[in-house]
């Protein structure tokens, strides 16, 4: 809560620092045309700007008042108790108020007082008959004094934020913009002072020229007196405006302020003169005041010296801070480039094949695009167990629940599984596991596609393939292995070959973690889970499909064999010898001989099928060759 308020108050302080220099733009030179050949000038105040700046400044002052109220109720750490540990937090309101009154209250109060508003609306009208330069100087000094206190508040406030959060800005780009903002603030202040001093130099020239005239009246310099009848006569006679021009023949040296007077910035509309002065201030700070041509006026030279010194300090600070923040943006990218260069040198040194080198590069590229160099595992391990569990639950719980076997489990068991999941990345066309290799992890797919195929142990003319998509899982052999009643040090053998079809991002559950969960949580050994496991298991589905096909073929062959046996028994009474051909005519004897030959072949074929039927009465060898998947033990008794 305190950190949030400090950030808000820091923003309001910067806003107030930008508002105060606008008070220097209040005076302006008004050009009055007397006739076609003569014109006069006078000094006035920008009334609309006065109202706008007063409202904005008052809003900014409210934050300073709120800050005082917050500090009256903000606990602090007793310095005397910091001998051991972090110290004791003082929450007693009376002690908090007494400490604040002794330390920062006076500075905060001076920063919160609305001095510019009081000066503009009360003090300046009261001394309107005094010299203009005296009034402007007094007004400028009052604003500067309070401005110093407000600048001072920025330093401890920024330090408090850095101490609590590490940095002022939450991102590198915001940090760079924050430092650039201070540079623009300095340009804003420099331009405002330049404008006010330009007005003062113009008034100084008028005062000097007025002393050379016998009938000169300095009160006419104010636009409040231009409505008098004598002003017109004085304007037609005076030469102070023509003698105080910016032409080279003028004896008065304006120095660096001649640019603003020659460009008409002192009499231009507000936006025009503001951006002109802002650009002038930014130009001088960026060039360390090199193009400045000053006169012998002491205040002017002092201002030029301040610009040169301030520009060196601000420019060095800006470059240093900007470099720090921008380097923090590109730091991980540069580290990745260095690792990539080391990897290229390593592959070239070991003379890896070009295809293998391309696979390595593709994996490194996929990992960089997915993580941007962030070590997710180290971040999670640095968190407390409770927070780490909640983060893992948020990332993995919905994905784990998509697995039907896990969806039947209670939340506590799911939390234990989610807590042990780790991120997994692989590029396209990568073999994750091969049929016959040990399975050491179970994958839960987040993004991408996998091809899972099997030959059922190398059987000829057998191939089964499925596509795994987000929400599916691979490595189900680990479930059976983890539920075995006796500990087996050997990992299960993969029954399928799993290869990535696209870039794949997944969560992996290692074998030892799944075994630990199975041993610790007896609720995993539930009879209810047995049917779910078998129903959704790809291994069990493949075995069941092959078993049904083999059983159906065996049934078809048995039916065929039984029908042939019945046909053989039906025609076993008939014999060609019982019908000799000698008692018949010649053509009948020939026909009888042919029929005998055909009958003998049919009888031989029937005997062949009959013998086959007797062989198929036993179990089909194809069924015997089908290896049934390991039966997991879902009973909890074996784990007692």
From TrEMBL:
Protein name, entry field: Cyclic nucleotide-binding domain-containing protein
Cellular localization per UniProt: Endomembrane system
Segments passing through the bilayer: 6-28, 49-70, 105-127, 139-157, 177-197
Main subcellular location: membrane
Membrane disposition: Multi-pass membrane protein
Domain Cyclic nucleotide-binding: start-end pairs: 405-487
An example Gene Ontology CC term for this record: endomembrane system
Family label: Belongs to the cyclic nucleotide-gated cation channel (TC 1.A.1.5) family.
GO function term, MF aspect, one: monoatomic ion channel activity
UniProt xrefs under InterPro entries: cNMP-bd_dom, Ion_trans_dom
Pfam families: Ion_trans
Keywords recorded for this protein, A-Z: Ion channel, Ion transport, Ligand-gated ion channel, Membrane, Transmembrane, Transmembrane helix, Transport
Chain positions covered by the region annotation Disordered: 620-640
Recorded superkingdom: Eukaryota
Annotated PROSITE patterns: CNMP_BINDING_3 (PS50042)
Record's keyword annotation contains rRNA-binding: no
């Amino acid at each position: 809560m305190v950190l949030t308020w400090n950030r808000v108050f820091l923003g309001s302080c910067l806003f107030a620092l930008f508002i105060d220099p606008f008070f220097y733009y209040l005076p302006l030179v008004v050009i009055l045309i007397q006739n076609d050949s003569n014109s006069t000038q006078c000094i006035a105040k920008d009334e609309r700007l006065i109202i706008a700046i007063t409202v904005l400044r008052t809003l900014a002052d409210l934050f300073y008042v709120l800050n005082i109220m917050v500090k009256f109720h903000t606990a602090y750490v007793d310095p005397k108790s910091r001998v051991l540990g972090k110290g004791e937090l003082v929450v007693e309101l009376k002690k908090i108020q007494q400490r604040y009154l002794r330390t920062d209250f006076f500075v905060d109060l001076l920063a919160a007082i609305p001095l510019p508003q009081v000066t503009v609306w009360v003090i300046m009208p009261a001394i309107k008959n005094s010299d203009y330069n005296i009034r402007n100087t007094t007004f400028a000094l009052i604003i500067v004094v309070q401005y110093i206190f407000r600048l001072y508040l920025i330093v401890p406030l920024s330090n408090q934020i850095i101490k609590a959060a590490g940095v002022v800005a939450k991102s590198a780009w915001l940090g760079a913009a924050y430092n650039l903002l201070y540079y623009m603030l300095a340009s804003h202040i420099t331009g405002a002072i330049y404008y006010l001093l330009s007005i003062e130099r113009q008034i100084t020239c008028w005062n000097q020229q007025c002393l050379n005239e016998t009938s000169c009246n300095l009160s006419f310099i104010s636009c409040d007196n231009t409505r008098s009848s004598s002003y017109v006569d004085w304007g037609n006679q005076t030469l102070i405006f023509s003698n105080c021009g910016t032409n080279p023949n003028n004896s008065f040296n304006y120095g660096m302020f001649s640019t603003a007077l020659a460009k008409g910035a002192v009499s231009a509309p507000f936006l025009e003169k503001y951006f002109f002065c802002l650009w002038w201030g930014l130009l001088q700070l960026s060039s360390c005041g090199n193009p400045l041509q000053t006169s012998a006026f002491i205040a002017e030279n002092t201002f030029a010296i301040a610009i040169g010194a301030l520009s060196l300090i601000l420019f060095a600070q800006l470059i240093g801070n900007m470099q720090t923040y921008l380097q923090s943006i590109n730091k991980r990218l540069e580290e990745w480039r260095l690792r990539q260069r080391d990897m290229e040198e390593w592959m070239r040194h070991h003379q890896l094949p070009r295809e293998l080198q391309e696979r390595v590069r593709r994996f490194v590229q996929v990992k960089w695009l997915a993580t941007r160099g962030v070590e997710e595992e180290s971040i999670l391990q640095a968190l407390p167990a409770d927070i780490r569990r909640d983060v893992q639950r948020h990332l993995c719980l919905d994905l784990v629940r998509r697995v039907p076997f896990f969806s039947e489990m209670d939340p506590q068991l799911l939390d234990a599984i989610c807590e042990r999941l780790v991120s997994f990345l692989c590029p396209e066309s990568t073999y994750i596991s091969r049929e016959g290799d040990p399975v050491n992890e179970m994958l839960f797919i987040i993004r991408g596609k996998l091809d899972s195929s099997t030959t059922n142990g190398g059987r000829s003319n057998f191939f089964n393939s499925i596509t795994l998509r987000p929400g599916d899982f691979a490595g189900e052999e680990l479930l059976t292995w983890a539920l075995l009643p006796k500990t087996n040090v050997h990992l299960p053998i993969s029954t399928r070959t799993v290869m990535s079809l696209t870039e794949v991002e997944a969560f992996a559950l290692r074998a030892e973690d799944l075994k630990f969960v199975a041993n610790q949580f007896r609720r995993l050994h539930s009879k209810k889970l047995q049917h779910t496991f078998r129903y959704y298991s790809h291994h069990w589905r493949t075995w069941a499909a092959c078993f049904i096909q083999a059983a159906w073929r065996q049934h078809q062959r048995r039916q065929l064999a039984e029908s042939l046996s019945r046909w053989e028994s039906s025609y076993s009474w008939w014999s060609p010898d019982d019908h000799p051909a000698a008692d018949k005519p010649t053509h009948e004897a020939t026909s009888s001989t042919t029929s005998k030959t055909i009958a003998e072949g049919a009888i031989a074929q029937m005997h062949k099928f009959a013998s086959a039927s007797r062989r198929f009465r036993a179990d089909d060898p194809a069924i015997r060759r089908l290896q049934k998947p390991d039966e997991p033990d879902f009973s909890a008794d074996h784990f007692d």
